[in-house]
UniProtKB/TrEMBL annotation:
Protein name: Lectin, mannose binding 2
Domain annotation L-type lectin-like: ranges: 35-259
A Gene Ontology BP annotation from the UniProt entry: endoplasmic reticulum to Golgi vesicle-mediated transport
Membrane topology: Single-pass type I membrane protein; Single-pass membrane protein
Coiled coil location: none
Keyword annotations: Disulfide bond, Glycoprotein, Golgi apparatus, Lectin, Membrane, Metal-binding, Signal, Transmembrane, Transmembrane helix
Gene Ontology terms, MF aspect: D-mannose binding; metal ion binding
InterPro entries: ConA-like_dom_sf (IPR013320), Intracellular_Lectin-GPT (IPR051136), Lectin_leg (IPR005052), VIP36_lectin (IPR035664)
Membrane-spanning intervals of the chain: 306-328
UniProt-annotated location(s): Endomembrane system; Golgi apparatus membrane
A Pfam family hit: Lectin_leg-like
Leader sequence segment: 1-27
Length: 339
């Protein structure tokens, strides 16, 4: 009896392991080895053409000002927008971008804004309402949002989020982009007296965003999403915007590294410039809409929900089997008494 129940438990454990599969290991970021640094896509001091309207490999517009120490996208003034964009399209399939930035200003808590955006998009140098750049873009955006426009927001700000767009989605500022957000994290990145960094890694369909904003000289995981499809031939850029509230939004450096990654042979036949930006999610960002009853609409089952359902079902089967075996044994003992 005990051996039978133990066998059932072992079988259940093996089945659950097979269904769940191994969890992905955390992405390890490059140590910044200059061997893989792509200078044609990097912005570093000393900035060539500082203080002038011309910079080799980079274009800027709006309120952007290039100094010897930083590129200021917006000053701490209301209603300003600025951006800086790489002139050279990136044809790397696997890359990692390290951004040294600083967001600071005179505004106290919740009296500053709006934030900074980092881009890998088809469009460049197109001003717009999304942190100083174009809405309905094609590609990837990472938002460093410092002001909560949605009073019902559960996030603690500043908040970092990711969005992939094929041109059909609109960023909703009134909801802080919640409807189109893929994932995000809170990061205390404003008005710090030490250096603040962010890293974006894209490799084999996996997007990873990590931060180093606590003066610990170590990366902290923020976003990790699989199933991301981004084409080659897009442009890197950064933009920022202010509204009724303001901040200084500075870029100190943007360094792009090539990742040496092996791809399956079938990838060699793919035209990576023709891929449409997309994300293969069990839950679509479009499901992030409010229910009329005031509840959040539940999307399709995630992997862990399926795992828990299977676990409950298997435990139920085991309990039924044990109870059945006990009942059967009792009946057998009772029948023996009549012989």
């Amino acid at each position: 009896m005990a051996a039978g129940a133990g066998g059932l438990l072992v079988a259940a454990a093996l089945l659950l392991l097979a269904v769940a599969g191994p969890r992905p290991a955390p992405a390890e970021l490059t140590d910044g080895n200059s061997e893989h640094l792509k200078r044609e896509h990097s912005l570093m001091k000393p900035y060539q053409g500082a203080g002038s309207a011309a910079m080799p490999l980079w274009d800027f517009q709006g309120s952007t000002m290039v100094t010897s120490q930083y590129v200021r996208l917006t000053p701490d003034e209301r209603s300003r927008e600025g951006s800086i964009w790489n002139r050279v399209p990136c044809f790397l399939k696997d890359w990692e971008l390290h951004v040294h930035f600083k967001i600071h200003g005179a505004g106290k808590k919740n009296l500053h804004g709006d934030g900074l955006a980092l881009w890998y998009t088809q469009e460049r140098l197109v001003p717009g309402p999304v942190f100083g750049s174009k809405d309905n873009f094609h590609g990837l955006a990472i938002f460093l949002d410092t002001y909560p426009n949605d009073e019902a927001a559960e996030h603690v700000f500043p908040y970092i989020s990711a969005m992939v767009n094929n041109g059909s989605l609109t960023y909703d500022h009134s909801k802080d982009g919640r409807w189109t957000e893929l994932a995000g994290c809170t990061a205390d990145l404003r008005n710090q007296n030490h250096d603040t960094f962010l890293a974006i890694r894209y490799s084999r369909g996996r997007l990873t965003v990590m931060t180093d904003v606590e003066d610990k000289n170590e990366w902290k995981n923020c976003i990790d999403i699989a199933g991301v499809q981004l084409p080659t031939g897009y442009f890197f850029g950064a933009s920022a915007g202010t509204g009724d509230l303001s901040d200084n939004h500075d870029i100190i450096s943007m360094k792009l590294f090539q990742l040496m990654v092996e791809h399956p042979l079938e990838d060699e036949t793919v035209d990576w410039t023709k891929i449409e930006p997309s994300v293969s999610l069990l839950k679509s960002p479009k499901d992030n809409v409010d229910d009329p009853t005031g509840n959040f609409r539940s999307g399709p089952l995630t992997g862990w929900k399926v795992f828990l359902l299977l676990l409950c079902a298997l435990l139920g089967i085991i309990v039924c089997a044990v109870v059945g075996a006990v009942v059967f044994q009792k009946r057998q003992e009772r029948n023996k008494r009549f012989y």
